[in-house]
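Hello,

I think I submitted the glycinamide ribonucleotide job twice by accident. Can you confirm which output corresponds to this input? Input:
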Amino acid sequence: MRLAVLASGRGSNLLAILAAIGRGEIDARVAGVFSDKPDAPALEHARQAGLHAQALSPRGFASRVDFDEHLFSMVDAVHPDLIVCAGYMRLISDPVVAAHTGRMINIHPSLLPEFKGLRTHQQALDAHATVHGASVHYVTAELDGGPVIAQARVPVEADDDAARLAERVLQREHPLLVATLRELATGRIAWIDQRVHFDGHPLPAPLLLDDANQLVRNRTLQESNA
Ligand code: GAR
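Support: Only one job matched these inputs. Its output is below.
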């Protein structure tokens, strides 16, 4: 599986992907790393790993669509099977999303559909959530609204502030993204007929990351829906 990774900042999820590929845990290679921020540390991580790394600043583009078309022509040029938004912080315009439906995923730091958008950890604290976490979902035109593939749950502790909570969620984001990519590479997870499939069947509820960092079915939800 050829991956293109989009990242705007720190790049810890990119590093987690590269480490897992290096350990032989994901049957994939990163064909390119792309950013809207020329000084993103993620690009430097990519270069240090000897990967194709390209930045394109939105400055100077007349519209969001113009920028996205240009950026994604660079992405498409490395012929990715899957595009991974790993901390890519720009909205992607509808026509460009539509042209890549089913081939683009995003990691988001909340249990979607809860807490879309930004400052998700503070949103969770403000809502007095007792469980927070992260989701990997297919990207569709609706911001953070595409079908969810898998989630990792993180209990909220009484003395949490947004920074502490973000740090614990991040520790679970990395294995969540790795496990999801692993099963996309094996074909156990697939996008068929506009739906997430797992082991050949439509997935009724997001997979959960267990303590052994494996993706398991959310039996409770499935049984209660039965
Ligand atoms: C991660 O927490 C990721 O979930 C979040 O940005 C961070 C990037 O960290 N993404 C979003 O908020 C997307 N809406 P990283 O650069 O260290 O991987």
